[in-house]
Amino acid sequence: MSEKCAFWNEYDSIAGHICYCELAAFNRPVNPQFLGAIGCTPEKRKECMQSMEYATGAGVIPEELPELQPAPITTAAPVLSCDPPSEIAKSVSGAAEKKTALAAPALVMLAILAGAYIGLGGVMFTIITNDLALYIGDGLSRLVGGVTFSIGLILVILGGAELFTGNNLLVAGYLDKKVTGKQVLSNWFWVYLFNFVGALVVVALFYYSGIWKANDGGIATRIISIAYVKTTLPWGEALFRGILCNWLVCLAVWIALAGKDAISKILAIMIPITAFVAAGFEHSIANMFFIPMGMLVKNSALAQSLVSPVMLETITWQTFIMGNLVPVTIGNIIGGVFFVAVAYWTCYLRPSMPGTIILNGRV
Q1: 10, 19, 135, 223: which one has the fewest Cβ atoms less than 10 Å from its Cβ?
Q2: Each residue of 149-158: b (16+ CB within 10 Å) or e?
Q3: Which residues face 19 on adjacent strands?
Q4: pTM recorded for the entire structure
Q5: Model confidence pLDDT, tens digit, residues 102-154
Q6: What is the tens place of the pLDDT at every residue in 258-309?
C-alpha cells in the first residue's frame, strides 16, 4: 500500500520510525476526484492513519474537499492596435487647431525641416535608382525607389515637421469649425514657402558634397533625366498627377495617425508613398528638390559630357515654376482637400441634418 503511494514517506530518525502522508503534512488541497485517481480510498486512508498512529502516536489523513468549480471565464476587452476612422477624423480636426496655433519661429523651422526631409528622400531615391533598372527592370526599380523615398514622410511624421501637402488636411478642421479659413491659408503660405527653403538647403548640401558625380556620372545622369521628364510634362498631366499624388500622401498621413506605435506608423506611411512614387505621380515639395538639383548639375562639365544639350536647355526656372510647380501644387491641393479632408469630414464629422437616420453611429 504505502510504497505505491507517491505521497507516503517513511524514514528512521533518532526518535524512531517515522511515517506520514505528505498531503496531510503540508496541507495540500485535494478533492474526491484527485484522491480517487491516486487510489486514496477511505479504506486506504484508514490504513495510513493506523500506520502513522502506530509509529508516532498520532495520525492525520487528508480530508476530502468539495469538488473544485472551474473559474468563471472572463473576456477582456479587445485592445485596438489602431484607431478607427472616426477617431482619426477627430484627431485630424484637433491637429488643425494645434498647427494653426504654432508660433512663427516654430512654424518656420518645422517647415524648413519638412522640406529638407523630403529633399533627403529625393537624395536617397536618386542614388538608389540611378542604375537599378538595368539589374531588376523598370517596375521593381520604381518599387524600390518608392520605398527609399518614403523616408522623407517618415521623418516628417515621426520627427515632427510641417509639410504643405500633409497640411491640406487642415481643411477638415476648417469644416469642423475648429479653425478659420484665414488660419488655413496663412499656414499653407508660410509652410509652402519654407518647405521650398528646406528643399533648397538639401539641394546645396548634396551638390557641394560631390556625391552626384559617383558611378561614372550615373547619378548626375539620373538627376538630369528626372528634372527633364518633370519639366516637359504637359500642364494637364502634371495637374492630374498632382491630384493622384496628394490623395495618397494625405492618406498616408491619415492612416499614420491611426497607429499606436512607431512600426505601425512607418508601415502606414511607406505603403501609400511607395505607391505614388512607383506610379510616377507628382509631389510639389519633392519637385522643389528634384528640379533645382537638375538645374545645378546641368551646368557641370560632367553633365554636359553625358547628356544631350536639348535636355539641358529644357530645365529652366520657367519650365520649373510654370510648367511643373504651379499645376502640381494645384493638383496636390485638390487631391488632399477634396479626396481626403472633405471626403472624410463628410463621412465622420459632418453634423447630422434634421430627419437624418443614423445607423450604427453613421448617417
Answers
A1: 135
A2: bbbbbbbbbe
A3: 10
A4: 0.76
A5: 999 999 999 999 999 999 999 999 999 999 999 999 999 999 999 999 999 99
A6: 998 999 999 999 999 999 999 999 999 999 999 999 999 999 999 999 999 9
Please list the residue range(s) of the chain that carry CATH number 1.20.1080.10.
Answer: 85-348
Region 85-348: CATH code: 1.20.1080.10
